[in-house]
Amino acid sequence: MGITALQRWLRREGEVHAPQSSMDLKEDGRDPLAPPIEQEGLDRHSRTWSLPRLACVAAATFGVAGISTGYLYQRDLTRQALQDNQRLAHIMPALHAEIATLQASATEHANTIDALTEIRDEMAARLAAGERRLRSVAAERDRALGLVHDLKRMIEARDLDLESAVEQRASLAGRLALSEARLIEVSDQRDASQRNEAGLRWRLASIQTQLEQLGARQAMAQSWLEGWVLGNLETLEQLVAGTGIDVETLVARAADSEFGQGGPFEAAVDEPPEEVPLADSVTDHLTRLTALQKLAGSLPLAAPLDQFQITSPFGKRHDPFNKGWAFHSGLDLGAPRGSKVLATAPGVVLSAGWEGPYGNMVEIDHGMGVITRYCHLKSVTVAAGDHVDFRQSIGVIGSSGRSTSRHLHYEIQVDGAPHDPARFLDAGRYLVAIFNLGQPALSGSGGPS
Predict the structure, then answer these.
(1) What average pLDDT does the structure give for the chain?
(2) pLDDT tens digits, residue range 147-205?
(3) Which of 67, 83, 239, 253 is the most buried (most CB within 10 A)?
(4) Burial status of residue 345 (CB atoms within 10 A of its CB: 0-12, 13-18, 19 or more)
(5) Residues 410/373, Cβ–Cβ less than 8 Å
(6) Residues 165 and 195 reside in one and the same domain
């Protein structure tokens, strides 16, 4: 910047001492076209005068330029400082806000660190407490294991004692038997063995007391058993009698069909204790109850259809074709189309197929003279000689043969005589109610129309 100021000064000095222009000459009254008078001498004089001056001026100028340069530099620094201060004045509020935010964040972080420190201390305390509890539990476990080990040893010792006691009991039982045998042998030496005899008599009295107690208990058990057998026997007799059949005849047949037992006698090595026989009355009642149970299991007490209604009862009725009085040997049961006809008790199929006015018919022998017939079927699904189970499907309801519309003609015969199937169905419902069998098949959902 000092050199620039020097150039400006030199330029001004040059303009002061430079030759005058034509305009200046005119103003002085001289001809501008006239040759310059003493111009050369004037220029020489000017050059002679100005060189030293110029040197001094240059030196002064350089000094001033240095001072100016320092001043200008200082001024620029001052300006730059002012500008920086202005920028700082604009930036300071934001910096203060940022500092406040950072201080708040630092405070929050400090609080968080304090909270985390407290949590860490609490967790450390909990961990230490947990470790103490763990050590305590481990110690308790060790003590428990020691107790378990001691108990195992005690149990093993008790087992050994028990085995020894069992052996001693067996030995004592043998000795008791031997003593009882010897009691008979030494009856002639009673005077010489009074002490042993007293002991044996005491033992004999104890055994006699036990036998008497057992006899009383047996009497009570037989009394209870007889009451239970009589109750069930009476119930089954009423059930079977409710069907209208001859109970005594069928019970005798059921009893005759019971299987016996036998074989050559071979003495057992370890004979079981002698069984006390039951009273004859209880044995007779049990035999009759067994026969009645077998009879009840063979009787057709279930309904031949799952859903039905009685459209014509058993007995005297007006014939549906000629309207005259006639005897109806079964029940007519109406049911939805496609209903399956079911065997009402296990048995053997005697016949299966077309039987004149009965149409498609299935006849089943249930044993002991009991036969069931299922007539007017649309189709038959069994054949003669087949063994059928209880509630097994044997055909589909239809209207074949002498029939006005779809229904099942259901018959029950005992020794060739027809019986009212409704009474068998009522007995089946009674059986469900008494013994709570929970079998809806025994009762069905039909009823009088």
Answers:
(1) 76
(2) 888 888 888 888 888 888 888 888 888 888 887 787 787 776 766 667 677 777 777 88
(3) 239
(4) buried
(5) yes
(6) no
Q: Which amino acid is at 375?
A: C
How many domains, in total, are found in the chain? Answer: 3
Residue range 387-424, pLDDT digits in tens: 999 999 999 999 999 999 999 999 999 999 999 999 98
Q: Give CA–CA dist 427/369, Å, rounded.
A: 19
Average pLDDT (38-42) is 46
Residue 358 has what DSSP assignment? G
Ordered alpha helix ranges (H), 242-279: 247-256
User: Based on the domain organization, do 148 and 245 belong to the same domain?
Assistant: no
* Residue 295 or 258, more confident: 295
Helix (H), strand (E) at residue 375:
strand 370-380
- Looking at the fold, whether 206 and 81 belong to one and the same domain comes out as no
Q: For 264, how many CA atoms within 13 A lie in the half-sphere containing its CB?
A: 1
Cα radius of gyration rounded to whole Å, the chain: 68
Helices H / strands E in the chain, number of each: 8, 12
**Cα 64 to Cα 183: distance, rounded to the nearest angstrom:** 162
Structure-block tokens of residue 20: 């005058």
Q: Please give the Cα distance from 78 to 269 (Å, whole number).
A: 134
Q: Which residue has the tokens 């204790």?
A: 273
> How far is CA 119 from each of CA 112, 122, 125, rounded to the nearest angstrom?
10, 5, 10
Which residues face 397 on adjacent strands? Answer: 377
**Amino acid identity at 273:** P
- Cβ atoms within 10 A of the Cβ of 54, count? 14
435 occurs within a structural domain = yes
Does 332 map to a domain? yes
Beta pairing partners, 410: 331, 374
Q: What distance lies between CA 389 and its chain's CA centroid?
A: 37
Contact 424, 300 (CB under 8 A): yes
Looking at 48-202, which runs of residues are DSSP E strands? none
Model pTM above 0.70: no
Closest to 311 in 3D by CA, of 425, 441, 405, 411: 405
CB 373 within 8 A of CB 332: no
- 209 and 172 both lie in a single domain: no
Structure tokens belonging to residue 301: 């007490």
**Consecutive H or E run containing 378:** strand 370-380
